[in-house]
Amino acid sequence: MLTDLALPRLRGTDGPAPGPAAPGAKPPTDAVLLARMADGDRLALQVFYARHHVRVFRFVLRILGDRTKAEDVISDVFIDAWRQAGQFEGRSAVSTWLLAIARHKAYAVLRRRTHDPIDEEQAAAIEDTADGPEATLATRDRSAVLRRCLGALAPAHREIIDLVYYHEKPLAEVARVFGIPENTVKTRLFYARKKLGGLLREAGLDRDVL
Hints:
It is a single chain. This protein is mostly helical. It is built from 10 helices and no strands. The chain has helices at about 30-40, 40-65, 65-85, 95-110, 115-125, 135-140, 140-150, 155-165, 170-180, 180-200. The longest helix is centred in the N-terminal third of the chain and has 23 residues, at about 40-65.
């Protein structure tokens, strides 16, 4: 269980992570935290979790579209990070390694619910253009429109955009998360930007919002 490792509960996951270290104290690097975790240091795990859980949660949530399932996946991700800390080889950024674990687990959940009718309802909701006052107000909001357009992308394209623009990952790191060649990432990013650009134009927004 996650609580057995003394991790904080996932509350307010959309909010910022806990504040920085006290003035004058140099925060440990991710690599140092992993080394300490490999030695069984649970405080290092607490710091590692606080540093990364918000971004990883949002990444998983964009894949699953279900907060409860995303929280369950996040628990598994950090348990795996604790157990596999000693296996990190430094061939990518620690955050990239963590996102790769998260993506693998999120897609395992998707495979288990392939025939779940809720998925169809969620897909319909993404494309819903109801003219109610709340929907109209949201449509006028650039952020809401961008989220809706992102939600209309194919999952692989949505993840590429997410990793490149939100997580600010270089293409080589994105390739490691996906486990595919960098040239394939470039191709997917090209088509993802093209598709998203078209959706944004249809929604009345410039592609410059990217």
